[in-house]
Amino acid sequence: MALPTIPAWAKKKKRFERAPVFPCEACGGCCKKLFANGLRPESNERAIFQKLDSGRGSCKYFDFLNNRCKIYNTRPWLCRRDVLWKKYYKPVGISVDFTYAMFKKVCKILQTKDVIEDGDIDWNVITQEVSDEQEVLFEE
Description:
By secondary structure, this protein is mainly alpha-helical. The protein has one domain (28-138). It is 43% helix and 3% strand. It has a two-stranded antiparallel sheet with strand order 1-2. Strand 1 and strand 2 (68-69) form a beta hairpin.
């Protein structure tokens, strides 16, 4: 997974040693739209998502009737926002607050669009938006 360019100030401020629980709204957006996350076609993560694909672009473990994951307690690491932060963002010094703000932006896109087209989720644009919104918080 290629990380977007993160502003220097976002790397300096670390508020948590451990990742808090991601404030998931349990909308199912990420489960219903597996490939709507800006992954490159050749990425290892894409291969994991392909194994989860029901054949309709949604996760085969997603229960549409109850809007819940059938394997929540044993779901893959790519479905765990805290693990994603620890694996990709924390090692390069990116705060959990900044990372979760980016994830929340993606959540809003998934919740508001019925169909996700190529380019709808551009991590560089999302990073810049979060940077613009949060920079004021960290200028002190």
